[in-house]
Amino acid sequence: MLGLLLSWSKPNLPAVSSFATNVDTIYAFIFWVSVICFIAIVGTMTYFVFKYRRKSENDKTPYIEGHTPTEVGISIGLFVLVMGLFYWGWVEYMHSRTSPMNPYEINVVGQQWSWNFQYANGKRTQRNIHIPVNTPIRLIMTSSDVLHSFYVPALRLKQDVVPGTYQYLAFSANTPGEYDIFCAEFCGLDHSAMLGKLVVMEAEEFADWQDDMGKYAKTAAAGGTQASGKSLIEQGRDLYSSKTCSACHSDDGTPRVGPSFKDLFGKTEELTDGATITVDETYIRDSIVDPNKQVVKGFVAGTMPTFKGQLNDDELNALVAFIKSLSK
Ligand code: CUA
């Protein structure tokens, strides 16, 4: 009976991520709890309206005392139910926010009105994101203008992207095919046209697809510069020299004016205000555009100039990828 009710209220959508069916079950469970509560509350209310209606002009309302055990019982019962739902939902939420070791990472940049993707080897796509099947994927996401929301119903995933910072999604897709991507946050005139496809490919097929650099391979041969068939890490290494990061930050652990980038990613650092942080993509990005925000203990605030406005999202992503690569 319960199984029938749960399956009856499931959405008619492909379930491609590992947590999609669990999300559907939680959704169906909440739906049916709501239906049962609605019927119980409105039904009781309607029954009482008739049963206790005023029957004559001098019908007096009796003085009614509360019934403590019932009230405490209902409160505790509902508390347990709601916290149980919270825990169930939270467990599934965490699955989509934490990734296993060494996921395949793709940078996602939302902009009015398209999704841009950049892969580890430097390949780029617009609108459609290609991924290998049954492989842990981690998206490092941002926006270059306003709020957008990356929404893939088949994965049961939706995440707002915010300019100036990173958001992350982790998943793996279990069935090859093409699935819709929407922007789920009103972002201007062509919001409704900000569509794309998640293309899930067999692993070998994906490898071939990724190696085919198309127009970027050609620009590389013609001496193209940025994004010209170079991997994200190589692009980052180029910027590390050309933007003179290397003057203050070594890539081999040698102490200079600023912290070395060697083994920096994932490190726990103590800040000048006593707080501790773990160096992640967001921290690196913040330190480039707003260097005085969180200064590591032992270094002097104000030493590093801000690079705000001098590096676009692609360049920041490349630098972050380069710094990460020095910690593996
Ligand atoms: Cu982007 Cu709506």
In short:
Helix content is 35%, strand content 19%. It is an alpha+beta fold and 328 residues long. The protein has three domains: 77 residues, no CATH class; 119 residues, Immunoglobulin-like (Sandwich), CATH 2.60.40.420; 94 residues, Cytochrome c-like domain (Cytochrome Bc1 Complex, Chain D, domain 2, Orthogonal Bundle), CATH 1.10.760.
Report on this model:
With 328 residues, the chain is an alpha+beta fold. The protein has 3 domains: 2-48 and 68-97, no CATH class; 104-222, Cupredoxins -  blue copper proteins (Immunoglobulin-like, Sandwich); 232-325, Orthogonal Bundle (Cytochrome Bc1 Complex, Chain D, domain 2), CATH 1.10.760.10. Helices cover 35% and strands 19% of the residues. The protein has helices at 2-8, 20-51, 68-95, 203-211, 215-221, 232-242, 281-289, 313-325; strands at 104-111, 114-118, 124-126, 129-132, 137-143, 148-152, 157-161, 167-171, 177-183, 196-201, 268-270, 276-278. The strands form 3 sheets. The protein has a 5-stranded mixed beta sheet, with helices on one face. Strands 4-10-9-6-7 form a 5-stranded mixed beta sheet, covered by helices on one side. A two-stranded antiparallel sheet has the order 11-12. A hairpin with a 2-residue loop joins β1 (104-111) and β2. α1 (2-8) packs across α2 and α2 (20-51) packs antiparallel against α3 (68-95). Residues 218-227 have low confidence and may be disordered. The chain binds dinuclear copper ion. Residues 110, 113, 148, 183, 185-187, 191, 194 line the site of dinuclear copper ion.
